[in-house]
Design brief:
With 316 residues, the chain is mainly beta. 9% of the residues lie in helices and 39% in strands. The chain has a 4-stranded antiparallel sheet, with no helix packed on it. It has a 4-stranded antiparallel sheet with strand order 2-3-4-5, with no helix packed on it. Strands 6-7-8-9 form a 4-stranded antiparallel sheet, with no helix packed on it. The protein is globular. The N and C termini lie far apart (46 Å).
Length: 316
């Protein structure tokens, strides 16, 4: 082989090698779901972010994990509890709460470096927590339990609901208007910050697990057996938008009124880009139940679930 042919062959080999590397890199960049190391095999139930970079995951055995890089890596935090923790809320990157079994409420004022128990006044399991700001918050739990605080958790007040079913999610749009959902199709609404609750018609007896409002008028509820409910009038009325899929839908997240996500059992991840007219499977998740999801920005989300599963959900 003369020098010219030799240089051509070497150049072609280099080009093919670079093309292969670039192709692999592009495939990795385009991968819609990425399994992230959690460092635990315990079930992870809840995930929350205070900013696109800072987030927390909670789960069985008092597990709390934290990320400062948008969910690429996670490090454990010492909760001081062995109770299962089902949800967390961080209204600021420093101030947050985690709730769980046997009335457990934990609070941090330093981003999770230390966690301090707060008195809940109940032994009921607490499944969901939300804060409008660092002062006003609500918790939903077993046996119709709803707790509220207006002093940053220094004290928690029981808000009688008139219900004895497990309530799995609570959401307030402002300091007056809110909802709670739970077992047996229970849908409760409040117009006075939770001091009183009224039953709304859900048209289902399925367990309802999560509620999300992408704006002040459009809202969604997810539940067992592919149940989806939608409101277009700020929660005055709810319409059945259930899916034919038998999957239990346990978590919801919306980045705006058109773009949303639902996660559930057997690795179910569904996406809508048209305001819920169509929901389509997204990626190939591990065949484990997912309990929560959040999208700290419009392009990347996190889902958590059984066996310490943490998934990064990436959109093009």
């Amino acid at each position: 082989m003369d020098a010219r042919k030799s240089r051509y062959a070497l150049g072609l080999a280099a080009l093919v090698g670079w093309a292969g590397f670039l192709s692999t890199a592009l495939l990795w960049a385009a991968e819609p779901l990425r399994v992230v190391k959690s460092g635990t095999t315990l079930t992870l139930y809840g995930v929350t972010f205070a900013s696109p970079a800072a987030g927390w995951v909670v789960g069985g055995g008092g597990t709390i994990l934290a990320t400062t890089d948008g969910g690429a890596t996670w490090k454990p935090q010492k909760s001081g509890s062995q109770e299962s923790l089902y949800d967390a809320a961080f209204p600021t990157p420093k101030t947050g709460w985690a709730v769980g079994g046997s009335g457990t409420i934990l609070m941090t004022a330093d981003g999770g470096a230390t966690w301090t128990p707060q008195k809940s006044g109940t032994l009921a399991h607490l499944f969901d927590v939300m804060f409008l700001d660092a002062t006003h918050g609500w918790i939903a739990g077993a046996d119709g339990t709803i707790l509220s605080t207006d002093d940053g958790g220094k004290s928690w007040q029981d808000q009688p609901t008139g219900s004895r079913v497990n309530l799995y999610s609570v959401l307030f749009l402002n300091d007056k208007i809110g909802w709670a959902v739970g077992a047996l199709g229970t849908l409760l609404a409040s117009k006075d910050g939770g001091r009183t609750w009224a039953v709304q018609e859900s048209q289902t007896h399925s367990t309802l697990f999560d509620i999300a409002f992408p704006d002040q008028t459009v809202g969604w509820i997810a539940g067992n057996g592919g149940v989806l409910l939608q409101t277009l009038d700020g929660g005055a009325k709810w319409e059945d938008r259930s899916l034919p899929t038998p999957a239990d839908l346990t978590g919801l997240a919306f980045t705006d009124f058109k773009n949303g996500w639902a996660v559930g059992d057997r690795g179910t991840i569904l996406r809508t880009t048209d305001g819920g007219f169509n929901w389509v499977p997204y990626g190939r998740a591990p065949h484990t139940t997912l309990y929560g999801t959040v999208f700290p920005n419009g392009k990347q989300g996190i889902a958590v679930g059984d066996k310490g599963t943490i998934l990064q959900i990436v959109t093009p």
